[in-house]
Amino acid sequence: MPAHPSSTLRTARTPGSSTPKPGSQSALRERNQQRIVEALLASAPLTQAEISRQTGLSRATVSNIVGAMNERRLVITEPTTSSGRRALSVRLNESGAVAAGIDIGRRHVRVVLASLGHRILQEESILLPLGHSAADGMDAAASLLDRLLRRQGVDRSAVLGAGVGIPGPIDRRTGTVVQGAILPEWVGINMREDLADRLGVPVYVDNDANLGALAEVTWGPHGGSENLIFVKVASGIGAGLIINGSLYYGNVGITGEIGHATIFDQGLICRCGNRGCLETIASTSIMIELLSRGSSGTISTSDILSRAAGKDPATLRVIDDAGAAVGRAAANLANTLNPELIIIGGSLTALGDIFLDPIRRGLLRHAVPLVGETSTVMMSSLGDRAEALGAAALVLQAQGAAAP
């Protein structure tokens, strides 16, 4: 189902990308191409002379870049006349150039293809085995991308780049997965390089919660939000932060790790080595573990949803406890950032108010009163597509194709 853009971030930073180093000739060419794309998005079609005037680039530079873009099917050129002279009309090729968004999770990989005009062209998700290796996950992503490209009728040369998200912290200086990821098999893997080798296109890597936040202000209804927290609750728990209209990355990119905020000092030992972290109370993994006790078989996240809909008392209690803990952790963030919106994403969004009500109670109990009262808490409208959509948005930003 197509998603529609609403607005965009003020800046177009692309952490963890495999793009050329600043100051290099290829980096300069990329920036110039971004300026041309921005001009065409704002008022296409344009002649090359008009592009030159609007961007400040020389006519020779515009001609060279447009020629290269035409070869890659990024633009469509047609002869025209301007002021009585022969000219070349240029417009973006909506069906040619595509951005790929890839979301790799604990048990799935989802890939979307998006046009420069922020239209979702193709989308598919497949299951992965629990504990899959990094190589298997990346191979599955590459295979799924190839299938969607064939379905769309475009070749790999039309792919502007691939944005990729995983559930875990990533050192944005190197694109390496660091300790604390839900996918321990991926720790130490340089996704930027390894996946770029498999795909043959520029790769942009980020944490899945960051991508969820980016998706909300790019594809969702919250484009005008300057300060927003996106909390993803799944096998792990993390937060993506929009501060003053921009994604916030901190020093090396390790931000929003609220899954490892201490909620109960005498709680369970967490995979991070600490005790009583939010993930030991509110992740879907702990919910499944609690509700599977005394059961003949292991339940799934979909079982949690169906049991909650059926008003099962044990399920409702587990959800209520988890929601209150998420609300408490969100309150600590809200007291620091004073957001307009706190958006809950992940695999439990279908619970609606059953999950939101205890989150709101936890927020109001632990936040500064005015902060709690003025922070709106809601479910993501993008569901489990948010992270892949955010990954595609990373690529579009790098091309200067910010959502209108």
TrEMBL record:
Transmembrane segments: none annotated. CDD domains: HTH_ARSR. InterPro entries: ArsR-like_HTH, ATPase_NBD, HTH_CRP, HTH_MarR-typ, ROK, ROK_cs, WH-like_DNA-bd_sf, WH_DNA-bd_sf. It holds the Pfam family MarR_2. It comes from the Bacteria. Gene3D superfamilies: 3.30.420.40, Winged helix-like DNA-binding domain superfamily/Winged helix DNA-binding domain. Residues 38-92 form the HTH crp-type domain. Residues 1-29 are annotated as: Disordered. GO terms for molecular function: DNA binding; DNA-binding transcription factor activity. Residues 1-27 have a biased composition (Polar residues). PROSITE patterns: ROK. Belongs to the ROK (NagC/XylR) family. PANTHER family: GLUCOKINASE, ROK (REPRESSOR, ORF, KINASE) FAMILY. This is ROK family protein. The lineage of its organism: Bacteria, Bacillati, Actinomycetota, Actinomycetes, Micrococcales.
